[in-house]
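User: Hey, my collaborator sent me this sequence without any context and asked if I could get a structure. I don't really work with proteins. Can you help?
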Amino acid sequence: VHTGHQAEAVVSTQSTGKEDGCVVCNNNLSISYKDVSLLYQFVTNSGQMIGPHQTGLCQLSHLMIANSIKTARELGLMAIDYKPIEYQDNGVFNTTEGIKDVGH
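Assistant: No problem. I've predicted the 3D structure and written it out in structure-token form, which is a compact way to encode the shape of the chain:
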């Protein structure tokens, strides 16, 4: 139910034990609209969200990331049309290698 107020949404994915290549599920990462350093890893330098076929995210994780990016942009936490320099070339996503597992 949408009440018109922005509620804090922190979603934790449950690891299914299945190695499907999804970095969010395999590392049990919490997705929050406040964690812009994580969210910017799934955005190109021109501000477009990177598709799940490139990031290797499962459908649920991709949807959670997309909704968090949308919320962060609506609240002014993330830029819409560019990726700030401090977030470029700094993350787990590398266009030549894909997503790296965190902690492995």
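In plain terms: The chain has a mean pLDDT of 76. You can pass these tokens on to your collaborator as they are.
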